[in-house]
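For anyone still unconvinced, we reproduce a single protein record, the chain in one-letter code, the fold tokenised, and leave readers to judge:
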Amino acid sequence: MITPPLAPEILAEYPELAALGRTATRLHPRRGTPGVGDSHAGGPLAWPADEPWPVCTRELRDGRRHARPNPLVPVAQLWASDIPDLPRTVPVARDRAGAVHDSQDVDLLQVLWCPVEHLRDTLGPAVQVRRRRAADLPADLLTDPPQGDVERAEWLLTPCVLHPEQIMDRPSAGALPKAVRDRMPPGVAAGFVAPGWKVGGYPRRPGETPCPQCGTPADLLLVVTDHEYDAETYHWIPVEEQDLDWSAPHGDAYERPTGLRLDGDLHVFACPDCGTVHVV
């Protein structure tokens, strides 16, 4: 899929935007039948058969706990060979001074979550992330992962295949330099940051996100959202879909392909210093 480029007159009027550009990969999930070897949203994971399936034991929103460890559900699987902006190394060793002196190659990102409301700083599912090397995967993969409790059916994804596209991303309105933002008419800056599912680029919220482990500003790894566009970002609709019928219910297949209903964008961050992954 192809995203329409930013209007040349915008770049001409605000040349500072060129220096703020940062690559990101829009994932463009669309409903389909992904396989275990595909990059996807909501499909089957390439999970070793002899590795325990991840479960949730976190405290629930009302203070209760799961009656038993609750199996997670797949959210995304991303192969680096498909996703240009997916990091391919993770820091794994530090010396006594705290400096990283070793890293591990990774080329597979797997994201899962628990479809039950939990006690956390912000509302949303409890997320777990795995980063792997494809070369380490055994031939024997899990074909029938365990099923658990589901409290929020709107946190179960409709399986989607991905159509990755590398684009140039720019900061959200609140993260733009004040001198640039003050020259823009109301609403113009809101559309610079890419919406929808993406890897890398800028978050849609302003400000740095420090690593909870070491305090280093973390890099945006993945954005999971329940919609690909909204009233402020309609100009991000891919060229191939601009003439489609966007009225309900047809438009849901393009605007909300995963079927998710979240309380806001879910951002997965990774620390470039210590490798810690956290979700906000």
